[in-house]
Automatic annotation (TrEMBL):
Signal peptide: none annotated. Gene3D superfamilies: MFS general substrate transporter like domains. It is found in: Membrane. This is NRT1 PTR FAMILY -like. It holds the Pfam family PTR2. The chain crosses the membrane at residues 39-55, 85-104, 110-131, 213-234, 254-275, 296-316, 348-367, 379-400, 424-442. GO terms for cellular component: membrane. One of its GO terms (molecular function) is transmembrane transporter activity. Keywords: Membrane, Transmembrane, Transmembrane helix. It comes from Olea europaea subsp. europaea.
Length: 455
């Protein structure tokens, strides 16, 4: 569906270019609006591409990770590296898009800008299909739908909520179940071992442990929302900061404010090889763990870096506001504040490094810790953190705007950025990140990793 969506985008842009040329000639260089059908077709293409990405992103990454044998120690190490290099490739593509495709779209043609990705996507699909005979596929161990199975575990446990714990213990003894560490959490789900009202519908310990595995993800998923609330600020507030600052490299060369975002992707591309080839082997020698550090330790490291980035962003913005006051630019929002845009690089770079820890760690965590039949759903859960985090960020901004604006006073997000207070907002985000990080540490400390041979 992705190639079709990009193809439709190419057609919508190509039709617009043809129509615009006709309008300019016919109307003596007076531009005219595109027809309604063309606008509908363009937005249909965008929504089609979004739907394609919803199916493509979690499934393709899960399929790639499935190619590694979990019973082979060497392949387990390689699987951890797979998530690193997956994100390395994505960030490399983002850098190319920011510099090459943006230039083509601005200076040559939007149709060409959409056409090139369409051709590349078609070639990638052909290459992917050529390897069909060599791929590994998971064999479904249970005929029942995993969603239905896990849902029925919760339903059975709810029906048996009055069951005496002694009856559960007798059932476990009858099945010869040995206690292991994970079984001590969410003991109420063990009530699903018994058939409610003598219906004969009961579940095995393995099926109950699957439900527990999904439930254990909820606190981690929830506490990571504070981390992703920061990310919508990168293409919005960070960019708006850059617009007001001096981005000149030479008297005739100026970096576009939006291009400063590329420094985040560059940080990912530069740091992933360092992490994978240098830091992981060192950590592996110290901890004796194949991945060097645990997935939750990796996620937590990125969470702390995200907090640090917001603190630094607040101080940089405070300095920008002071500079605007010193040069008498407070009521001249269109004037460039004589402060180098390079001051923004630390917050971009630290967030890029945080990506290497947290985003890659979350991908591996949600893939590894769900039942075998729900790998792509696990990665969809990872992606849902960013979707809901974006909504929460928008809600937070609207609440802050409402609380800080009023008659005779400028809000924290005033149109005149020299009278706004992004520094306060960044520090508010830092406080929320700190609270979320503390909650995450509590959840991570009590988290019990799944044993792959049981799920």
């Amino acid at each position: 569906m992705g190639p079709q969506a990009l193809g439709f985008l190419f057609l919508s842009a190509a039709l617009h270019s043809f129509k615009s040329s006709y309008c300019l000639i016919a109307a003596n260089n007076t531009a005219c609006s595109p027809p309604q059908f063309q606008i509908i077709f363009f937005f249909f293409s965008l929504y089609l591409f979004a739907i394609a990405q919803a199916g493509h992103k979690p499934c393709l990454q899960a399929f790639g990770a499935d190619q590694f044998d979990e019973q082979d120690p060497e392949e387990c190490k390689d699987k951890s590296s797979f998530f690193n290099w997956w994100n390395f490739s994505i960030s490399s593509g983002i850098i190319v898009a920011l510099f090459v495709l943006n230039y083509i779209e601005d200076n040559l043609s939007w149709g060409l800008g959409f056409g090139i990705p369409c051709i590349i996507m078609c070639l990638a699909l052909i290459i992917f299909l050529l390897g069909t005979m060599t791929y590994r596929f998971r064999i479904q161990s249970n005929g029942r739908n995993p969603f239905v199975r896990i849902g029925q575990v919760f339903l059975n446990a709810a029906r048996n909520w009055r069951t005496n714990p002694e009856a559960i213990s007798k059932k476990e003894e009858a099945q010869g179940i040995l206690l292991y560490q994970g079984s001590q959490q969410f003991k109420f789900l063990d009530k699903a071992l018994l058939a409610p009202d003598g219906s004969g519908e009961n579940f095995s310990t393995t099926e109950i442990e699957e439900a527990k595995a999904v439930l254990r993800l909820v606190p981690i998923w929830t506490t990571c929302l504070g981390y992703v609330i920061v990310f919508p600020q990168v293409p919005t507030l960070f960019t708006n900061q850059g617009v007001t600052m001096d981005r000149s490299i030479t008297p005739s060369l100026q970096i576009p404010a939006a291009s400063l975002q590329s420094s985040m992707s560059i940080a990912v591309v530069l740091f992933i090889p360092i992490y994978d080839q240098i830091l992981v082997p060192i950590a592996r020698a110290i901890t004796r763990k194949p991945s060097g550090i645990t997935m939750l330790q990796r996620i937590g490291t990125g969470g702390f870096l995200s907090f640090l980035s917001m603190v630094i962003a607040g101080f940089v913005e405070r300095e920008r506001l002071k500079t605007a006051v010193e040069y008498g630019l407070v009521d001249m929002p269109k004037e460039i504040v004589p402060m180098s845009g390079g001051w923004l690089l630390p917050q971009y770079l630290i967030l890029g490094i945080a990506d290497v820890f947290t985003i890659v760690g979350l991908q591996e965590f949600f893939y590894d810790q769900v039942p075998n039949e729900l790998k792509s759903i696990g990665l969809a859960l990872f992606l849902s953190i960013f979707g809901i985090g974006s909504f929460l960020s928008s809600f937070l901004i609207s609440m802050v705007e409402k609380a800080t604006s009023g008659p005779g006073r400028d809000s924290w997000f005033s149109d005149n950025f020299n009278r706004a207070h992004l520094d306060y907002f960044y520090w508010l985000l830092a406080a929320l990140s700190a609270a979320s990080f503390a909650a995450y540490l509590y959840s991570a400390k009590s988290y019990i990793y799944n044993r792959r041979n049981r799920l």
